[in-house]
Amino acid sequence: MLGFFLWEELWGGAFADTLYDHLLGRMTGPVAIGIGVVAVYLFVRMWRERGHYLHHDGVTLFRGADGSWPLASIRDAMVTRNWLGIRSLRIDVGQGAGANPELVKTYMLREPPDAVRDAVMVAVAQARGVPVPASVH
Q1: CB of 124 within 8 A of CB of 110?
Q2: How far is residue 89's CA from residue 117's CA, in Å, rounded to a whole number?
Q3: Using an 8 Å Cβ cutoff, are 37 and 29 in contact?
Q4: How many structural domains are present in the chain?
Q5: Furthest-apart CA pair in the chain: how many Å?
Q6: How many Å apart are CA 63 and CA 109, to the nearest integer?
Q7: In this structure, what DSSP letter does residue 20 have?
Q8: pLDDT at 4 over 70
Q9: Please, what is the end-to-end C-alpha distance for the chain in angstroms?
Q10: Range of the domain at 59
Q11: Under a CB-based contact definition with an 8 Å cutoff, are residues 84 and 66 in contact?
Q12: Euclidean distance between CA atoms 123 and 91, whole angstroms
């Protein structure tokens, strides 16, 4: 059987074309539908997260309407990557290694991620009463 497939493949018979059409031709439709479903899911997910913005009132850091952390409890802010390579801004609140909440994906930020990280750390330093000579806009 393997010899027959090799013969048909090398000399380009109709059997090889039919086999290719049946195997790959029928697979392209469901694969295209799957890619479309994943693309719509990712778009809707990014659209929902567009309101996850960061602001603070001098005491608490807020992320949109669903997350808040006291500035005094924040130890550090860092930019990390997930298993797909997508970067996100996270804070260390000192509750263990796995408890670093994600503030926002970096593709959702208007400013560079390092500038936002520095702004968060300046707000933390000001909340602790440490004089900070720099200003972040």
Answers
A1: no
A2: 7
A3: no
A4: 2
A5: 81
A6: 12
A7: H
A8: no
A9: 71
A10: 53-127
A11: no
A12: 13
